[in-house]
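Q: Given only this backbone (696 positions), what sequence would you predict?
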């Protein structure tokens, strides 16, 4: 058995500690670093060099048999016994015994004398009291007063009481540790990319009990509306388009079911889109009725790209094929759970959704994305979830961590997770645990200058020293970074502020997709009071893009956009200011302003009707009134405004051609650029505006 350098150092550190210091040592090794190899080497040396007996204690009963078999493989010349009531094994006379603490905590007399006790997952040992570990070890020490205890863990701290090593505790000193960063740099662990999800849930209002979020309240926040789950799953579906094995952690069993259903929906929509893309090549290629049986789909995808036609859905299909998913929870039968895990390891399913099942002892090196759709105050639990992606695997470049519960922001970068220091009641954190890259949303240490994900360089801020103790205000100048981005697609949606009144004005949210995973949004205040600054700004925005007058509602604006009435942006310039969370769009390059509605792609006509769609979060869809070709899905706000098509034979379409007959305001006024506004016009627009709203 050949050990890696840090595994050899860990074993030697244990023996050196026992020779020179009092107390029981702990080895801190990251998940995936090979703790089993270290345990096997400790046990082998204890048996072969000192004729001792070794007891290896496991906390999770499902892993006892698996770890005993692995230990026997690593120690082929020594008999390894298994003692577990659940596995119906009571092999107590072997030199090395692997046992479940639940089974043996009252069986010291039956087990006999041991010289070394190794506690795997040592962070599960309680701080004090007469727990199972303390009772067993106390009884074993009565048999052998020189009993040596060694702990191994990746997270040497507890949620409620801090470090597991204390002078009066069962475990006393960390004798050896190696960092995640070191093992990643040397290729022993996979490179990790931590990213804040766009659809992250605000956890600030969730109450705590025993140092952890109250489970029921946290679940309610993650499942507040179906739309929250649907949008989160839509983001997950597209962020993982180039990933092969995605492990999803959910807040509750009900939440896991909702996530599963939503992912199925997005997969089915994607498969339908694949079929539509293939139909565009039906003349040049033979496309079968069941399009998945079509030969040479990769060739067809290349041909579509050469023709300038959309092929993104086919590209994803070629990368991932059928994207199967399964759910495992605490009540899942063991046989069914093991089958799902095995299928995930073999790559037969892409998404494995779980609730509090796969946080420890789950070994799937192919995991290249961990989606944390839950929140926790426990740094140990967060580390264990992230650690499922630490192991390396052939063809695995890195592991993406998508955080939907503000966990990375709460606990810090994934390679520097530490227990939170105790604070006085009401005291707040004074130092940020992390900062977010404005380019790729990676979460890094506050002191990081260059983003490891996209190589973005944070601007260096010159520090100034103030000699006036009474001076107030920020002495540091605001720095800003401008960046030009190419726009690949645009999405228009009706946006409503959280907790807003029913009659509050809604805005048009415009989201620009720039590249693979870069999204920038702006909000156009179409429904704000006329004459106000926000409404005038929206009017100027609209006049740059559309020949028709600006509509009165955001719902109408979405429909105009779906009909191709708005000029398409090709490039935007964003400005990121120091201390501000989101970039500002300061310049846009637009295509030509359309002078007519876009006709149906299939029949060329422009008569569009709104019909019912069987989804709660997108209850309507726009289709051609003549051939029923689908134009797009719409939200409830659009349905409320227009209503569904009533079935009349003379369909005139949602948008009338008469919208082009007049311009907004005075008929003789042509559309104007925002730059055309005179100084006097601008002053008139802001006259009477409250001081805190004035742009100057």
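A: Predicted residues:
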């Amino acid at each position: 058995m050949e050990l890696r350098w840090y595994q050899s150092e860990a074993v030697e550190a244990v023996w050196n500690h026992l020779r020179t210091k009092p107390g029981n040592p702990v080895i801190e090794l990251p998940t995936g670093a090979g703790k089993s190899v270290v345990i096997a080497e400790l046990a082998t040396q204890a048996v072969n060099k000192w004729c001792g007996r070794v007891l290896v204690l496991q906390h999770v009963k499902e892993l006892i048999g698996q770890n005993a078999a692995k230990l026997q493989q690593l120690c082929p010349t020594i008999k390894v016994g298994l003692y577990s009531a659940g596995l119906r094994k009571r092999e107590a006379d072997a030199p090395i015994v692997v046992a479940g603490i639940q089974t043996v905590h009252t069986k010291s007399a039956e087990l006999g004398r041991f010289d070394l006790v190794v506690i795997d997952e040592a962070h599960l040992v309680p701080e004090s009291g007469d727990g199972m570990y303390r009772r067993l070890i106390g009884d074993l020490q009565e048999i052998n007063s020189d009993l040596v205890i060694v702990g191994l863990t990746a997270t040497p701290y507890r949620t409620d009481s801090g470090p597991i090593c204390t002078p009066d505790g069962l475990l006393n000193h960390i004798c050896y540790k190696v960092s995640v960063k070191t093992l990643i740099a040397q290729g022993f662990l996979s490179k990790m990319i931590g990213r804040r999800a766009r659809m992250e849930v605000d956890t600030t209002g969730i109450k705590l009990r025993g140092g952890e979020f109250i489970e029921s309240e946290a679940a309610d926040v993650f499942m507040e509306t179906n739309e929250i789950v649907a949008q989160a799953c839509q983001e997950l579906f597209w962020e993982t388009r180039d990933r092969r094995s995605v492990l999803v952690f959910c807040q509750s069993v009900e939440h896991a079911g909702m996530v599963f259903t939503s992912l199925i929906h997005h997969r089915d929509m994607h498969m339908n889109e694949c079929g539509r893309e293939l139909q565009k090549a039906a003349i040049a290629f033979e496309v079968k009725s069941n399009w998945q049986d079509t030969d040479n789909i990769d060739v067809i995808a290349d041909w579509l790209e050469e023709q300038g036609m959309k092929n993104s859905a086919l590209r994803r299909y070629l990368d991932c094929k059928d994207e199967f998913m399964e759910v495992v929870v605490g009540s899942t039968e063991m046989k069914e759970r093991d089958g799902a895990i095995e299928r995930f390891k073999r790559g037969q399913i892409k998404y494995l959704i779980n609730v509090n099942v796969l946080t420890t002892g789950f070994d799937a090196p192919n995991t290249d994305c961990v989606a944390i759709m839950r929140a926790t105050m426990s740094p140990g639990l967060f580390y264990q979830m992230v650690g499922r992606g630490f192991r390396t695997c052939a063809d695995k470049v890195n592991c993406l961590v998508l955080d939907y519960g503000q966990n990375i922001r709460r606990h810090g970068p994934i390679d520097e997770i530490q227990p939170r220091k105790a604070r006085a009641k009401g005291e707040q954190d004074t130092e940020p645990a992390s900062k977010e890259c404005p380019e790729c949303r990676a979460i890094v240490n506050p002191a990081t200058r260059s983003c490891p994900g996209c190589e973005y360089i944070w601007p260096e801020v010159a520090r100034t020293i103030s000699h006036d103790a009474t001076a107030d205000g920020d002495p540091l100048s605001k720095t800003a970074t401008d960046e030009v981005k190419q726009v690949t697609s645009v999405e228009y949606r009706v946006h409503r502020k959280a907790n807003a009144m029913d009659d509050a004005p809604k805005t048009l949210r415009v989201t620009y997709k720039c590249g693979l995973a870069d999204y920038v949004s702006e909000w156009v205040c179409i429904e704000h009071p006329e004459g106000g600054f926000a409404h005038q700004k929206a009017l100027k925005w609209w006049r740059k893009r559309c020949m028709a007058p600006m509509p009165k509602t955001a719902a109408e604006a979405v429909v105009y956009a779906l009909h191709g009435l708005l000029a398409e942006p090709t490039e935007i310039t964003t400005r990121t200011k120091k201390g501000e969370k989101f970039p500002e769009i300061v310049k846009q390059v637009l295509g030509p302003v359309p002078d007519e509605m876009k006709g149906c792609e299939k029949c060329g006509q422009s008569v569009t009707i709104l019909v019912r769609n069987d989804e709660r979060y997108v209850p309507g869809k726009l289709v051609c009134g003549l051939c029923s070709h689908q134009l797009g899905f719409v939200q409830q706000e659009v349905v409320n405004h227009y209503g569904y098509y009533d079935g009349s034979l003379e369909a005139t379409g949602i948008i009338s051609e008469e919208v082009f007959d007049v311009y907004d305001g005075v008929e003789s006024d042509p559309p104007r650029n925002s730059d055309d506004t005179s100084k006097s016009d601008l002053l008139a627009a802001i006259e009477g505006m409250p001081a805190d709203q004035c742009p100057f």
